[in-house]
């Protein structure tokens, strides 16, 4: 077939088409996420792909890279400023407050799976449209819940067959801790002010904690000897962090304390953590992370209730699975391929094909008018376990021929027994 396209279109940079063979892998890792969450009592929530921009400015933090440089923001026809969601927590908290779920018995355990959007430099495992699996739990400040949520993520990775995933954990403290640590950081960085990257200088007095998250090589080198937040923890923050580590030990979750871990969001308090695995080409090997956010619900107009959660990048999960050569179970096989010979058989074949599908049998037929030999080849390409041949003569006799592809055995059976015969043999495997 010859054709000339009037226009050539290409996919926007930083996005991907997920073709059918890959989509089955996505469906599997998403289904494993749902199964794991259900074991822990979490229910699914689905929030809009875009929200009012102010939600992310207030929730994520105006001094973060996400809000300053990475959000897709636009004005709609009503001149409202909206943004595609760059992360999942803010929208979920907004829903919790707006729908007054806080009035119900707590805790509330939710999870979500869906696309997020950030204007980033595309690289392995990082796209401008990416997909995230996250959990959020509201209503309890119990350190045991921190440990449970972290363990849920590890359980998920193990269910996928992913190995060598470690947890890096830190405490970013409470307001008392942050005030004390903020002063220490300013005192430390001020002598190096002119050597810091521009964005780090801009953050020095607004949010010096963000400097520890800088990607600039010179700034990272300077930050290497900055004071540790663990030396500034209040009594309450130190107790909380100690309890979290105790419960992680009880759950036998392997972790290391990383006192430079601050995450890229401003809403965290107390526990902050990341899941880290070695993925060549992916930045820092992080495939997810999260933490506690005890003031965010109040910031959004709700009661003073605590929260805890994580987000896991699904592209990075697939990359890690590929790197570790984990075989993803993809259902490629067809149960039955139907070949018809003659116009009457073709019409009747449509009826029987539909009957197979209604009976739960994966079935297909030829729509390209191929010869019989070519149709057998197509059945092989589809991994068909059985090939059924129905001709006009067989139709008159109320018969159909069925070939077992694996053994080569061929049988002629009554048409009225066809569906039950295929179902029974599929069940036997």
Automatic annotation (TrEMBL):
Gene Ontology terms describing biological process: histidyl-tRNA aminoacylation
Secretion signal, residue range per the UniProt entry: none
Residues reported to bind L-histidine: 87-89, 118, 132, 136, 263, 267-268
PROSITE patterns: AA_TRNA_LIGASE_II
Start and end residues of each Aminoacyl-transfer RNA synthetases class-II family profile domain: 29-329
Record-listed E.C. numbers: 6.1.1.21
UniProt cross-references to Pfam families, sorted A to Z: HGTP_anticodon, tRNA-synt_His
Keyword RNA-binding: no
Cellular component GO terms held in the UniProt record: cytoplasm
Keywords: Aminoacyl-tRNA synthetase, ATP-binding, Cytoplasm, Ligase, Nucleotide-binding, Protein biosynthesis
InterPro entries: aa-tRNA-synth_II (IPR006195), aa-tRNA-synth_II/BPL/LPL (IPR045864), Anticodon-bd (IPR004154), Anticodon-bd_dom_sf (IPR036621), His-tRNA-ligase (IPR015807), HisRS-like_core (IPR041715), HisRS/HisZ (IPR004516), HisRS_anticodon (IPR033656)
GO function terms (MF aspect): ATP binding; catalytic activity, acting on a protein; histidine-tRNA ligase activity; transferase activity
Catalysis: reaction(s): tRNA(His) + L-histidine + ATP = L-histidyl-tRNA(His) + AMP + diphosphate + H(+)
Enzyme class: ligase
Places the protein is found: Cytoplasm
Claim: Metal-binding is one of the keywords in the record: no
Domain of life: Bacteria
Entries under HAMAP family matching the protein: His_tRNA_synth
Protein family per UniProt: Belongs to the class-II aminoacyl-tRNA synthetase family.
Subunit note: Homodimer.
Name of the protein this chain belongs to: Histidine--tRNA ligase
Organism whose genome encodes this protein: Thermoactinomyces mirandus
Taxonomic placement: Bacteria, Bacillati, Bacillota, Bacilli, Bacillales
């Amino acid at each position: 077939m010859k054709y000339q396209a009037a226009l050539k279109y290409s996919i926007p940079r930083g996005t991907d088409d997920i073709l059918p063979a890959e989509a089955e892998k996505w469906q599997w890792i998403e289904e494993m996420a749902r199964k794991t969450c259900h074991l822990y009592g979490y229910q699914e929530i689905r929030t809009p792909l875009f929200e009012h921009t102010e939600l992310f400015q207030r929730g994520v933090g105006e001094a973060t890279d996400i809000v300053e440089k990475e959000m897709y923001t636009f004005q709609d026809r009503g001149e409202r400023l909206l943004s595609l969601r760059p992360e999942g927590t803010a929208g979920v908290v907004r829903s919790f407050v707006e729908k007054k779920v806080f009035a119900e018995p707590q805790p509330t355990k939710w999870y979500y799976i869906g696309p997020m959007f950030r204007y980033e430099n595309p690289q392995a495992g990082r796209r401008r449209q990416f997909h995230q699996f996250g959990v959020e739990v509201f209503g309890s400040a119990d350190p045991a819940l921190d440990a449970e949520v972290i363990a849920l993520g590890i359980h998920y990775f193990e269910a996928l067959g992913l190995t060598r995933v470690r947890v890096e954990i830190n405490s970013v403290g409470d307001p008392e801790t942050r005030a004390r640590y903020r002063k220490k950081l300013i005192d430390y960085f001020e002598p190096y002010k002119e050597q810091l990257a521009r964005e780090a200088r801009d953050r020095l007095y607004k949010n010096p904690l963000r400097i520890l998250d800088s990607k600039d090589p010179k700034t990272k080198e300077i930050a290497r000897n900055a004071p540790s937040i663990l030396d500034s923890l209040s009594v309450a923050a130190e107790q909380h962090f100690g309890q979290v580590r105790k419960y992680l030990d009880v759950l036998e979750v392997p972790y290391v304390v990383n006192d430079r871990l601050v995450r890229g969001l401003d809403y965290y308090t107390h526990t902050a953590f990341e899941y880290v695995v070695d993925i060549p080409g992916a930045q820092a090997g992080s495939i997810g992370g999260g933490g506690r956010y005890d003031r965010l619900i109040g910031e959004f107009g709700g009661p003073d209730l605590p929260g805890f959660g994580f987000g896991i990048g699904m592209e990075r999960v697939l990359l890690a699975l590929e790197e570790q050569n984990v075989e993803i179970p993809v259902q490629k096989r067809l149960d039955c391929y139907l070949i018809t010979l003659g116009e009457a058989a073709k019409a009747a074949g449509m009826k029987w094909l539909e009957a197979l599908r209604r009976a739960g049998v994966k079935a297909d037929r030829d729509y390209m008018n191929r010869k019989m030999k070519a149709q057998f080849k197509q059945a092989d390409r589809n991994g068909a376990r059985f090939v059924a041949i129905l001709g006009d003569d067989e139709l008159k006799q109320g018969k159909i021929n069925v070939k077992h592809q694996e053994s080569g055995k061929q049988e002629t059976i009554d048409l009225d027994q066809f569906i039950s015969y295929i179902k029974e043999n599929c069940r036997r495997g």
